Amino acid sequence: MTDDPAATEPARTIARERLLSGQAWDDFCDTLKVAGRHIAQVEGPLSDLDRAEWYRFMTRLARSSMERLLENAEPTRPRLRDMVWRQSINVQTVDQDHLMCQFDAARDYRITGTRGTIPYFVMAVLTCPAPAVAGAEDWATQGAAGLARFDPANLKTTGFLHSGQLRVEADGTFAIVLSQNDPGPGHNWLRLLPESNSILIRTVWGDRVTETAPAFTITRMDGAAPEPVTPELIADGLAWTAQAVLGYAELVRNWWQGSQGNFAARLNRLDYSRAQYLSNGGVPDRHVAFGGWEKGLDEALVLEFTPPPCEYWNFQLCNIWQENLDTFEDGNGWINNRRHVAEADGTVRVIIAERDPGLGGNWIDSYGHERGIWGLRFVQTPATAPVRLWRLPLAELAARGPAALDPAAMVRTGAFID
């Protein structure tokens, strides 16, 4: 993933030799081991369920990273591929699909497609810390310290374009040029920077049954013919794949109890932070509040907020590792602007508990979890919503109903912290 093959030829030769000798494979396997053991760096209480989901999370990261960074990272065959099934990261909403493609910023690309009928999509060009030839060195021995130089999980947005900004033809088709240089008037243009190395397309669904997804195809504008893979390309892909798993292992630890969130120290809050959201591939078209939550299995959390007018909003419950709970397959675990129950005054009440206390509103099953991450997002609006929050015994809530929500015990949250 470099724009100067001559300058990197010595490193490419090393990468080739490492693949042919098996060293690149050994380092790939060893880096995965380092990532799995990173759970030891997570301090504080972890249940057996938390630990079981951690190791499943590692397999999901490995599967997703292989698809994105090895299987679909051939320079002459750019492909937009969806995230693999059931893999989510950074509190990814169930109502969004993520299409990603690695590319070489030295090239110009064209994305062609059809608009579809979903309400909204947004494209973000990304960069991350990476050496020119990652496959030329061992990463496992560097551990988490190596992420300072090479971290495929540390994504920063360098440019974005949303569906409302596109010029779409009468037949619903469009074309977008991705390049460092402006293609001129009459073109949809998404600018690349020299350090750009991937694109992420978020498609936002309102109703997956009745709506049609947009279609996207990405091609190199120089018309380069596909080429066979090379040892150095596979060495690079193995390094990117394993380092991505380690990077995300550190990312979720850092959000939970490190410098990039430290939610474990500020439990049962939802704080809006532009810096937090934009720190990992976010786009500035939305407001997102993240936080950590905690309650006993015999307790409930109740949240109330009034959504502002916007293109889309959602609230979702995740585990410590920022994954949607398994109940999302059953239609539980999240609500949005189209699937929720509101009070007469427009207030949305969310009840998080092991069973439905019969309070009405929107019950979300905590599904055996005692702690995790949650998120509240509003897309295409300058406004946000403050949140009222209670933590109380589930039996009391079931017995007394709304009367159990004592104003004196309420926590006010949902403010900007930066």
Notes on the protein architecture:
- By secondary structure, the chain is of the alpha+beta class.
- It folds into two domains: 249 residues, no CATH class; 151 residues, Sandwich (Jelly Rolls).
- The protein is 22% helix and 27% strand.
- The chain has a five-stranded antiparallel beta sheet with strand order 1-2-8-4-5. Strands 10-11-17-13-14 form a five-stranded antiparallel beta sheet.
- The protein starts with 8 loop residues before the first helix and ends in a 5-residue tail after the last strand.
Topology:
Layout: H1 9-21, H2 23-36, H3 48-71, E1 81-82, E2 96-102, E3 109-114, E4 120-127, E5 156-162, E6 173-179, E7 188-191, E8 198-204, E9 215-220, H4 231-257, E10 271-272, H5 274-278, E11 286-294, E12 299-305, E13 312-318, E14 334-336, E15 348-353, E16 362-365, E17 371-379, E18 387-393, H6 394-400, E19 411-413
Parallel strand pairs: 6-7, 15-16
Antiparallel strand pairs: 1-2, 2-8, 3-6, 3-9, 4-5, 4-8, 10-11, 11-17, 12-15, 12-18, 13-14, 13-17, 18-19
Which features characterize this protein?
418 residues; alpha+beta; Jelly Rolls; five-stranded antiparallel β-sheet; 6 helices; 19 strands; globular
Number of discrete helical segments: 6
Average pLDDT over all residues: 94
Poorly predicted ranges (pLDDT <50, ≥5 residues)? Answer: none
Helix percentage: 10-25%
How large a portion of the residues is in β-strands, by DSSP E?
25-35%
Radius of gyration: 23 Å
Number of domains: 2
- Cα separation of the termini: 35 Å
**Total strand count, please?**
19
Strand order of the largest sheet: 1-2-8-4-5
For the report, how would you describe the main beta sheet? 5 strands, antiparallel
In sequence order, what are the helices and strands, one letter per element?
HHHEEEEEEEEEHEHEEEEEEEEHE
Structural class: alpha+beta
**3D shape:** globular
